[in-house]
């Protein structure tokens, strides 16, 4: 049985459609958070769309853009611009602070910014690991194309290809672009998988899935994917089921509620590391 998750829309300085967590689906494999950001433009000479420094524990953030650019800065000294097709992977482990800001050229040229941010829950032994950051250029990620379907493998293995992006548990993440009139049978998988329709619409085993909806696929079954008269774009995501539950509270993910309470107290009292060159911060809600 396929479960359809509708987006929860909000404005956090730019429009966001949130699919995970939801009432119908708390997670898919290690994916515990899925936001579709934008599309939006941001006025020159302002800080519209900037995300001020904020903390994370117990997760890895994955940023992937369809258009525009952003600049990531973090408390381990990273400064990294990300552009479409690339991957920013920040592993928070025991704790990291970062900001995400719109570059001046993107504002001045009124470039549309649009992309996907996801969080991966870390396996319990890695929740207390040292924070890390890795950037993978679009040219490093493998691409596959056949019979009207093109795929970029972002994380894990799919379509006979394997991404160089390293994660802490078996994970699948791929960007799929369908021509009009495409038919493709997605083979069965032992992983928990879903398809987020980022643009256009997609039929999955004859069920119409509209844009900005997440289809949670039937475990262990193949699925026929079809487009009609218009092209479509979707993200295939999921992975091996997590061993044990995870608690989510604000920007924190952990197998331990006590650890989350400690992280909240640490942020409130200024015990997290600082982002070099940044003076702003987001207060604890």
Automatic annotation (TrEMBL):
<dbReference type="InterPro" id="IPR012093">
    <property type="entry name" value="Pirin"/>
</dbReference>
<protein>
    <submittedName>
        <fullName>Pirin family protein</fullName>
    </submittedName>
</protein>
<dbReference type="InterPro" id="IPR014710">
    <property type="entry name" value="RmlC-like_jellyroll"/>
</dbReference>
<dbReference type="InterPro" id="IPR003829">
    <property type="entry name" value="Pirin_N_dom"/>
</dbReference>
<comment type="similarity">
    <text>Belongs to the pirin family.</text>
</comment>
<dbReference type="InterPro" id="IPR008778">
    <property type="entry name" value="Pirin_C_dom"/>
</dbReference>
<feature type="domain" description="Pirin C-terminal">
    <location>
        <begin position="173"/>
        <end position="272"/>
    </location>
</feature>
<dbReference type="Pfam" id="PF02678">
    <property type="entry name" value="Pirin"/>
</dbReference>
<feature type="domain" description="Pirin N-terminal">
    <location>
        <begin position="15"/>
        <end position="120"/>
    </location>
</feature>
<dbReference type="Pfam" id="PF05726">
    <property type="entry name" value="Pirin_C"/>
</dbReference>
<dbReference type="InterPro" id="IPR011051">
    <property type="entry name" value="RmlC_Cupin_sf"/>
</dbReference>
